[in-house]
């Protein structure tokens, strides 16, 4: 079975090949057509290459096994890579928007010399990047990788950003006097990228700050399925890359022996790990029922 690290590398390398082709095509055609929107979209495709590189470098670190200095492993590096991808996407969005606003304020009246070649390149880009998004997302879901998921959204944002670019290029082709529509399209592209960047970055920072993952209360109910467990409470969890580290308190019969309590604790740990794909480790605190914390 293919390891998570190898899957990340394979998917990312395939993405790099697609991004190189699209970035070159968009920038060259955009330059020939004097289209700011298309050049901005090409730069966005090129920025995907940089985030792909960050992903390839990062997977070497977060896939490393635990050591003496890092007993929990290096999975947090994946979350850091996710945040870097989000921040980089935000910078690209700001630069694109700033350039387009400057063009509008300066009153530049350079009509884009768009043609069917420009329209065809953008149509192919939209289809290719959406397929790449679906391909990368399936891999991310398979191994629960936040960094790969962030990169998938980077691919989709490229497909989405190509839509207003396509509209702007098409309008400028049929209405050459509407010179301003090209800059407006670039602004829309930048705004869309900024929203996606904010979502990716905020999620990664929340994980770095140990925000409790959503939907984990079901783990208490799972623990209470074990015979001998009277009540499960004080549940805490943190994300380490794709894994969840869980800590909870379990109440049992106060007359139970230490050995029996230990067996229930072990049963709870195994049940939670087996029942939830992302739970990697469980720490169970045994308490006598009816006597409080």
Write the layout of secondary structure elements.
Layout: H1 4-32, H2 36-62, H3 76-106, H4 116-143, H5 146-174, H6 180-208, H7 218-223, E1 231-240, E2 243-252, H8 258-275, E3 279-288
Parallel strand pairs: 2-3
Antiparallel strand pairs: 1-2
What attributes does this structure have?
mainly alpha; elongated; 3 strands; 8 helices; Alpha-Beta Plaits; 293 residues
Q: Can you summarize this structure?
A:
The protein is mainly alpha-helical.
CATH fold-level topology of the largest domain? Alpha-lytic protease prodomain-like
The averaged pLDDT comes out at: 81
What's the total count of β strands?
3
Which secondary-structure class do the elements indicate?
mainly alpha
Through-space gap between termini = 44 Å
What is the H-and-E element order?
HHHHHHHEEHE
Q: In this structure, how is the largest beta sheet organized?
A: 3 strands, mixed
Strand content: 5-15%
Label the overall shape.
Answer: elongated
Please report the first level of CATH classification, the CATH class of the largest domain: Mainly Alpha
Helix content: 55-70%
Describe this structure in words.
The protein has eight helices and three strands. It has helices spanning 4-32, 36-62, 76-106, 116-143, 146-174, 180-208, 218-223, 258-275; strands at 231-240, 243-252, 279-288. The protein has a three-stranded mixed sheet. Helix 8 links the parallel strand 2 (243-252) and strand 3. Helix 2 runs antiparallel to helix 5 (146-174). It starts with a helix and ends in a 5-residue tail after the last strand.
């Amino acid at each position: 079975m293919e390891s998570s690290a190898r899957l990340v590398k394979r998917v990312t390398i395939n993405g790099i090949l697609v991004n190189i082709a699209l970035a070159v095509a968009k920038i060259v055609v955009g330059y020939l057509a004097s289209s700011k929107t298309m050049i901005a979209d090409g730069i966005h495709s090129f920025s995907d290459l940089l985030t792909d590189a960050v992903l390839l470098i990062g997977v070497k670190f977060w896939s490393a096994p635990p050591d003496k200095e890092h007993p929990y492993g290096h999975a947090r590096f994946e979350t850091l890579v996710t945040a870097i991808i989000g921040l980089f996407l935000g910078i690209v969005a700001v630069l694109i928007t700033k350039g387009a606003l400057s063009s509008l304020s300066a009153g530049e009246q350079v009509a884009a010399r768009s043609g069917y070649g420009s329209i065809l390149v953008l149509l192919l880009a939209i289809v290719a990047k959406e397929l790449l998004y679906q391909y990368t997302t399936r891999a991310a879901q398979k191994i629960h990788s936040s960094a790969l998921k962030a990169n998938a959204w980077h691919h989709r944002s490229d497909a989405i950003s190509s839509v207003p670019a396509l509209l702007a290029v098409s309008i400028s082709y049929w209405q050459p006097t509407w010179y301003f529509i090209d800059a407006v399209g670039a602004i829309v592209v930048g705004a869309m990228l900024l929203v996606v960047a904010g979502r990716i970055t905020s999620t990664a920072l929340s994980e770095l700050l140990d925000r409790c993952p959503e939907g984990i209360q079901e783990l208490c109910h799972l623990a209470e399925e074990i015979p001998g467990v009277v009540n499960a409470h004080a549940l805490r969890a943190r994300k380490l890359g794709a894994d969840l580290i869980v800590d909870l308190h379990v109440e049992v019969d106060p007359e139970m022996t230490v050995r029996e309590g230990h067996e229930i604790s072990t049963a709870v740990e195994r049940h939670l790990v087996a029942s939830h794909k992302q739970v990697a480790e469980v720490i169970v605190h045994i308490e006598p029922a009816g006597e409080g914390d």
